[in-house]
Amino acid sequence: MLERTKKRRTDKTVVLTFQGPESNRQAAVDFLSRLGFVDTSDTVPWREAFQDISEEEGPAVVLRAMRRREGLTQKALSEKADIPQGHISAMERGKMPIGVARAKKLAKALNAGYKVFL
Questions:
Q1: CA distances from 29 to 16, 18, 38, 44, 111 (A)
Q2: Rounded distance, CA 113 to CA 37, Å?
Q3: What is the 8-class DSSP label of residue 19?
Q4: 80 and 74 in contact (C-beta within 8 Å)?
Q5: What is the pLDDT of residues 52-71, one digit of tens each?
Q6: What crossing angle do the helices spanning 99-110 and 58-69 adopt, rounded to 10°?
Q7: How many CA atoms lie within 13 A of 8 on its CB side?
Q8: 73, 76, 78: which is closest to 102 by C-alpha?
Q9: Domain definitions of the chain by residue range
Q10: Which residues touch 38 (CB under 8 Å, ≥6 apart)?
Q11: In 3D, which of 70, 54, 69, 63 has the Cα closest to residue 102?
């Protein structure tokens, strides 16, 4: 009998947008944080933040900067994001594309929106 060797992904990411009274904003953010959501309202695309960096090297610079911002080594990020450390190193040097699947894992591990890596 044949068995599946790869698990199907069940952790789909969604982006939520709400409109409501400003006075309840922090309560909503706190509640959603307890459910595993991350507030990305204050993030900007790397292209806007680093206009002098080329398209090819941009995601690598952003990844390295965000990892350092969180005070993580490549090994620690590797364990947190479930991505091999060698891949983290290659992505930071611009030798390996990050891609959407890895961007989502990295974003979750680094408390950021995944689009900053694309």
A1: 11, 11, 8, 18, 14
A2: 11
A3: -
A4: no
A5: 777 667 888 889 988 998 99
A6: 20
A7: 3
A8: 78
A9: 43-117
A10: 107, 108, 111, 112, 113
A11: 63
Residue where the block lists tokens 């990305």: 40
Cβ-contact 45, 62 below 8 angstroms: no
Q: Which CATH architecture has domain 43-117?
A: Orthogonal Bundle (1.10)
Taking a C-beta distance cutoff of 8 angstroms, is the pair 77, 66 a contact? Answer: no
Q: DSSP strand E in the chain: where?
A: none
Structure tokens at 101: 């699947």
Token pair for 97:
């594309």
> Six-digit token pair at 44?
């900007």
pLDDT of the residue at 1: 47
The confidence score (pLDDT) of residue 46 equals: 63
The predicted pLDDT at position 89 comes to: 95
- 92: burial class by Cβ within 10 Å (0-12, 13-18, 19+)? buried
Tokens matching residue 104: 């989502």
Q: Smallest Cα–Cα separation from 115: which of 107, 80, 57?
A: 107
Q: How many CA atoms lie within 13 A of 89 on its CB side?
A: 4
